[in-house]
Amino acid sequence: MNEQIETALRGGPTGEEDLAREACAAAGRLAERIGDEGLADVAFAAVDSPFGRLHAAVTRRGLVRVAFPEEDPDTLLEGLARRISPRIVESPKRLDDVRRELEDYFDGRRRDFDVSLDWSLIGPFGRRVLRATSEIPYGGSLSYAEVAAEAGSPRGSRAAGNALGANPIPIVIPCHRVLRSGGALGGYGGGLDRKRWLLELEGALTPPPDGRG
Amino acid sequence: MTRALPPFQRFLDANREPVWRFLVSSVGPHEAEDCFQETFISALRAYPRLRPDSNLRAWVMTIAHRKALDAHRGRARRAVPLADPEAAGGRVQEAPPGRDETLWRAVGDLPARQRSAVVLRYIADLPHRDIAQAIGCSEEAARRSLHEGLAKLRKAVPA
Fold first, then answer.
1. Is B19 within the bounds of a domain?
2. Which pLDDT score is estimated for A74?
3. Could B103 and A33 be called an inter-chain contact, meaning their C-beta atoms sit closer than 8 Å?
4. pLDDT band at A108 (very low <50, low <70, confident <90, very high)
5. Boundaries of domain holding A89
6. Which helix (H) or strand (E) holds A24?
7. How many angstroms separate the CA atoms of B22 and B40, rounded?
8. pLDDT more than 70, % of chain B
9. What is the reported pTM?
10. Which domain holds residue B31?
């Protein structure tokens, strides 16, 4: 009898699958409430894009991170937890503005982003470089040397390249608009195909005649 | 690298089921939702102050256990005006519906500590050490509560 009771207890008051589904739904409602009431320090969500599924994260200050699809979400979250706060929840609603602006941008309907940014993942030199980068207008480009000069380090084009490569908010801080002097693409954290695609979207590069890319 | 607290979302992913199971079993399906939200919102507020090597499962179960006690106390308070026939007429069935209503009604009728010990052991699948932490007693006392709770259930539920 003892074992019967224990088995019945383990089964729970409703079926196993029901419990799992209800728990999942309750956790979803909870995460939404946490997002709505601003109880989390960081909110993240997936954002669809022509590159696949991006992940974006916002703090109370603004957009703090955009990650390309190859980035492992767990590693991304662990990094945010360590560097900003472990109070981080998935909250698609809090990313609505970011999602809308990115969609408009990818569809060619938006040239500038209005969402506020949180620069806290960017060091002092990186800030100078990326602030200079964010001044480059849609459709324009600067060389690494020019960006370094704008950032106050005229001989720091290699360091500027590193700061651009470490951009935590790609696309929105348009590091794809920085090219080699002479026009070669240089590098890109999200891969050169994407850099080319973004520059073609903005009309800064002409697509090759065979329509590749 | 030193161990860091997992992102709260991952902590929620890993603990939502045992917490939900515990709450549905100990306060019933109607009150489980509120208790669940309050449990994790309390956890979220305190989260950054936790030591990274804390036993997170036992910690969140401690909070859930307290919320369940609050719910039971609230229910006891609300039960008074049920003498009013109109209110009594609208009284909802408190025992969770399901496979074995007698058993779950008997679980609901257990004294708080025994109920929590039984539910934490069999529903949330916690080891005795964590049950003791969650209900705030020694491991031996937790074993005793569990044993006494099971004995009562055996009596209450016909074979």
1. yes
2. 93
3. no
4. very high
5. 13-106
6. helix A16-36
7. 13
8. 82
9. 0.82
10. 8-156
